[in-house]
Design brief:
Rossmann fold; 326 residues; 15 strands; globular; alpha/beta; single chain; 24% helix; 2 domains; five-stranded parallel beta sheet
């Protein structure tokens, strides 16, 4: 692919194989060398990418900055990368930065592509930034109000970050619905309440992060009149079936799609992506986010990890790639 002194990245070569190989991209004119410390694996989306489940119609919109190749394979992918600027003489030399970038051991990137990480936030915690943005965006979609009964379905990385964020809103009555035993136990350990399978009182707001049609249907079935269900899952090419012929219309329920690449309409007159990112890093000053990172794997182990992911392995919350640079 390229000279051996090129950075190495995780390449998905097919729907069945991933390998660490040199990159092929040219160095940008204003590129500054940054060495990777950590990158977060967004397991739901990245499993679908690695399995070739991106619809052709989304090939352009699903591209991430610095991605090489296409979703038809081969390609590099990933979108929450933290590294240290390694260019003596540059004003940011030695600083931690966060940017949207595939899993790769080092890169030359333009300063306009990165966000400086506040000095009191550890680089590992900073790798949560992109997924926490997803959670912030979801809360803005409704929004959640004082005293609301709220259900979060799924306690993976997005569901757990969303739940933590919701606990910071006064008066919210929050419950977690999770079918996997280990994740249920972890939710309890982290101080969250589990939902009853058949709650007597309907919810005001439901968030679905499971990518499962059965969970989506459950959320609608237990959503109150004029209530809103925010769908954060991405299903790729999977078709799902819902029963919308009974309470959905009678109760005037709302089903809302939330996607981090678009700010909710009510925020757009006053907010931009930079302001949202600044909010996320302000939130990340709190140490309790560290509990959402449960596993670190070495960069060299990434191909094996994706082999397990394709086979159905479900990690516990956040999984970060450790490049051994800190």
């Amino acid at each position: 692919m390229a000279a051996t002194n090129s950075p190495r990245a995780l390449w998905h070569l097919s729907s069945a194989e991933s390998r660490l190989l040199p990159t092929t991209s040219a160095v940008p004119v204003d590129g500054v060398r940054v060495r990777a410390a950590y990158s977060l694996i967004s397991t739901g989306t990245e499993r679908l990418v690695a399995c070739g489940q991106v619809p052709l119609s989304l090939y352009d919109t699903m591209r991430v900055p610095h991605q090489e190749g296409t979703f038809a394979f081969p390609l590099t992918y990933g979108y929450s990368w933290v590294g240290r600027v390694d260019q003596p003489g540059h004003q940011a030399h030695g600083r931690w930065v966060h940017l949207l970038h595939p899993h790769q051991d080092w890169a030359h990137v333009a300063p306009s592509d990165w966000t400086l990480v506040p000095e009191d936030i550890p680089p590992l915690r900073a790798s949560l930034a992109s997924n926490l943005e997803t959670a912030v965006n979801a809360v803005w979609e409704v929004p959640v109000s004082l005293g609301d009964r709220v259900l979060v379905m799924g306690f993976g990385i997005i569901g757990s970050l969303l739940a933590r964020l919701l606990t910071q809103l006064p008066g919210v009555d929050l419950a977690i619905l999770e079918t996997q035993t280990a994740r249920r136990e972890l939710a309890i350990e982290m101080g969250f309440e589990l939902a009853d399978s058949s709650p007597r009182t309907p919810y005001d707001v439901v968030f679905n992060t499971t990518a499962r049609a059965a969970a989506l249907q459950h959320g609608l079935d237990h959503l109150g009149r004029e209530g809103a269900l925010v769908e954060l899952s991405w299903y790729g090419q999977q078709s799902i079936e819902l029963r919308l012929g009974a309470a959905f219309h009678q109760r005037r329920q709302r089903l809302i799609s939330s996607q981090v690449s678009q700010l909710p309409p009510a925020r757009r007159p006053r907010w931009d992506y930079q302001r949202r990112k600044a909010l996320v890093f302000e939130l990340l000053r709190q140490a309790h986010w560290d509990a959402h990172l449960r596993e670190c794997i070495a960069f060299e182990a990434l191909p094996d990890f994706f082999e397990q992911l394709r086979a159905g392995h479900q990690p516990m919350l956040g999984v970060a790639v450790d490049y051994g640079q800190e």
